[in-house]
């Protein structure tokens, strides 16, 4: 049922409904509720969460969308992505052009937690070994190799604990050490990601798993509830006059648009069986293998979400080694033109040298590699969008009901000092709570102001239904106002 259905039964059509309807507060409530129900991005299935990470940092100036005329930075702080473009020279997010209505680009987010140093055993840098801060919201350890986040769990681990689905999926494309992990347990220790899609699949689906009888299709009941509410609101309208009657009529018209001509429900069927193990292994021997394994992991996660075998997952698409972007023709050409020897490596050469020698040739190679990684994220979105959500009465896809958080290992600045302007994209579900289809500039990019990414972690918790979370991150920072609450510009 929609939120409107639940509330209407409980309050609107009780014995005091007519009196409540005469108050301005009633109309503000009804307008807000109808707006969320009627939204095209309304999340109707149970919410899921997927965090995706790619390596090599980012140049913010070629990552953000631009004005279509002149390709300059957006003039506003909250702009529809449909009015902007990712297609300009050296643009990194070009593969996301088809997804503009289903993503939001956050510009000016900072991993400020990495600079706090409130405990002697904490490090005050953000580089490769500080990647764990992204989902824990906690200060990184001084012993970088230990990957010990001092009893701070990651957001995925926390959400899984509250939701309680059978499996918390932790996948990666190529193996990675614990010091570059995404997921951390209650002790703050890294959880090893699995590079083989078959292993990830088996974590969600036992060999003897059989979906059995299809889930009950609730579409008929949903339609009856909506029709019942319309009838009650119609009777309320008939008791009113003037402006109040006109406003209720407008709400009725909105509800009538929600009433479908056919059935409301989706398929209501989980089709994956325990024998449907992915045939693509986790070995990567070419650029094509990177995409194939990425898609296999994303498809496995989508299947687990569809069958309610999991509700939370992480997916790490490579790390800074072994530098597959080196093989991209555009990168190879740029490296050769820039004078690198035949044995150059994308990360140690182009990435390390970028901020000290960011001429047009190096820039072309660097952004080409990052654009290819953006295409891997686009492939994840395609896989999630290609599987219908059996639990969505409106027939949406898994993507439509999954809050996807894509981020990089570090942000915009010189190597090992990349805690500012951290790239972040929110995609998919969450439309009842989080804005989608937007470019959001969170602060003056050239200023010393900082917007802690902890606010985004809290916003994601709200999108998952846990609006009792007011802070997520390092225990020493819980009392600081700038770290508390959700990321207000992102909230609906």
Question: How many structural domains?
Answer: 2
Shape: globular
What is the CATH T-level topology of the largest domain?
A: Alkaline Phosphatase, subunit A
CATH superfamily of the largest domain: Alkaline Phosphatase, subunit A
Number of helices: 13
**How much of the polypeptide forms β-strand, as a percent range?**
5-15%
Oligomeric nature of the chains: single chain
Briefly, what CATH class of the largest domain? Alpha Beta
- Gross CATH architecture of the largest domain: 3-Layer(aba) Sandwich
The SS-based structural class is: alpha/beta
Q: How are strands sequenced across the largest beta sheet?
A: 3-10-5-9-8-1-7-6
Measured on Cα atoms, how large is the radius of gyration? 24 Å
Helix content: 25-40%
Number of strands: 10
Identify low-pLDDT runs. 1-22, 31-43, 261-266
- What is the terminal separation in angstroms? 21 Å
Mean pLDDT: 86
SSE arrangement, N to C: HHHEEEEEHHEHHHHEHHHEEEH
The main pleated sheet reads as: 8 strands, mixed
